[in-house]
Recover the amino acids of this structure.
């Protein structure tokens, strides 16, 4: 056990997030190859073995009996239904005291049935994970349960139902690599041991700090580390945000600064680069309430200059609707930022939640490290996510629109601009340098590029210029 980190039982973990839980009785036998469930399958009998399981592992039956007596559970996972924060949910909770929360065939049966029940009843899934991996006493018959779980997760994803994982101590092995890391949103309890390699199988010189919830948050694999007291509220918020689809695009936010339209291209650049101009956080605060953020690209990186998550639209005719947001915060966007935005757009698309993007960047990061991190492929990923999205996208240009690094987040045919913004194929200074013009011609070059908001409307690049909201008189 990680020192000082509580290790909850399966039912204690359930009690952390809900006061009402109805356990699914069965199905503890295998489902059909298609992974479907019905009333008959939920009453299927326990999978039967000869003495000591599928491998005849000496002492396995006795180990199971001791685990059952110690924990009061028949298997390493408890599945059922509950209401969390007002949303009906399928809950999956691991019992680490039962053979280290390991996955065996009967565990796989229960997990498959829980996923099938969720799809049949159109319910989201919350997994409270605490596992050491696959059950060695069942050998490869246990390991292939990961394929079953992955298939069920994929079918549930294709059905447009959200999956949220809460990582307890410990979450390692195949449980981390399927139910944990494979979820749409990944939350973790503070100090929890999280990693593919458990503590007994790591290299002897491995840094234990790398195998923690906090380290996984820093590496972009976890969305938030949440104290137990805050878990019910945040989990309930996530379930509400992800369970309300909408087919209509959201309107662009009104401008926050009462700025006149620029008379020259260089004035437009100055307005957009002003330190006094409202940034993405101000727009999100004004436009949305009850926000919850995702963090990281799931590939080892995160970019604090790309803000992604879900929130609820404030008052107005669209008030109360859930919207996903991907907002550039005015810095050069890193590859991890683009990958996180692509992840956000694809998740919103699967769940049929409209997307708002806020464009504000001098351009994509172009340093050597960004190239090593796959800048081109990351930008291409966002272009692809936007192009493939079936859910409606709305974009507001709120500051600098620097070349393709900004355009990647722009919704085709539904991009708007604030008066204190500009969009350009290239920064005026760089354009002048490429054209071998002296510095004093940068201003004229800015005019030639036609980058003012009104120019963008005339060119058909944006639909219109948003005005500040009018306070009721």
């Amino acid at each position: 056990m990680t020192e000082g980190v509580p290790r909850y039982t399966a039912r204690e973990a359930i009690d952390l997030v809900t006061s009402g839980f109805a356990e699914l009785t069965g199905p503890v036998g295998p489902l059909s190859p298609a992974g479907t469930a019905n009333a008959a399958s939920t009453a299927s009998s326990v999978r039967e073995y000869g003495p000591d399981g599928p491998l005849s592992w000496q002492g396995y039956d006795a180990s199971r009996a001791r685990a059952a007596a110690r924990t009061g559970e028949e298997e390493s996972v408890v599945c059922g239904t509950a209401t969390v924060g007002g949303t009906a949910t399928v809950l999956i909770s691991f019992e680490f005291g039962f053979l280290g929360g390991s996955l065996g065939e009967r565990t796989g049966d229960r997990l498959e049935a829980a996923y099938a029940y969720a799809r049949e009843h159109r319910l989201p899934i919350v997994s409270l994970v605490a596992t050491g991996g696959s059950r060695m006493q069942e050998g490869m018959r246990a390991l292939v349960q990961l394929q079953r779980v992955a298939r069920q997760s994929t079918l549930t994803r294709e059905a447009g139902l959200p999956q949220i994982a809460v990582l307890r101590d410990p979450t390692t092995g195949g449980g981390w690599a399927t139910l944990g890391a494979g979820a749409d949103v990944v939350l973790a309890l503070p100090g929890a041991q999280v990693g593919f390699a458990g503590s007994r199988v790591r290299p002897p010189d491995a840094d234990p700090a790398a195998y923690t919830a906090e380290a996984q948050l820093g590496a972009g694999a976890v969305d938030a580390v949440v104290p137990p007291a805050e878990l019910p509220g945040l989990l309930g918020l996530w379930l509400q945000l992800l369970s309300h689809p909408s087919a209509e695009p959201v309107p662009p936010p009104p401008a926050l600064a009462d700025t006149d339209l620029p008379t020259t291209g260089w004035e437009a650049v100055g307005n957009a680069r002003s330190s006094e101009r409202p940034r993405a956080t101000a727009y999100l605060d004004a436009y949305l309430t009850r926000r919850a953020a995702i963090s990281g690209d799931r590939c080892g990186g995160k970019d604090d200059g790309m803000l992604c998550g879900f929130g609820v639209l404030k008052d107005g005719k669209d008030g109360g609707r859930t919207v996903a947001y991907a907002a550039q915060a005015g810095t050069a966007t890193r590859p991890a930022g683009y990958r996180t935005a692509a992840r956000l757009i694809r998740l919103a698309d699967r769940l049929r939640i409209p997307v708002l993007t806020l464009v504000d960047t001098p351009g994509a990061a172009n340093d050597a490290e960004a190239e090593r991190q796959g800048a081109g492929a990351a930008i291409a990923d966002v272009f692809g996510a936007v192009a493939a999205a079936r859910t409606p996208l709305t974009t507001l240009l709120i500051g600098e629109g620097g070349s393709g690094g900004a355009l990647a987040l722009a919704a085709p045919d539904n991009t708007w601009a604030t008066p204190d913004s500009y969009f350009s194929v290239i920064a005026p200074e760089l354009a002048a340098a490429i054209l071998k013009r002296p510095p004093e011609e940068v201003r004229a070059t800015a005019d030639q590029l036609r980058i003012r908001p009104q120019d963008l409307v005339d060119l058909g690049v944006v639909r219109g210029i948003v005005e500040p909201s009018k306070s009721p008189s």
Observations:
- Confidence is low (pLDDT under 50) at residues 28-44.
- The chain has 17 helices and 16 strands.
- The radius of gyration is 26 Å.
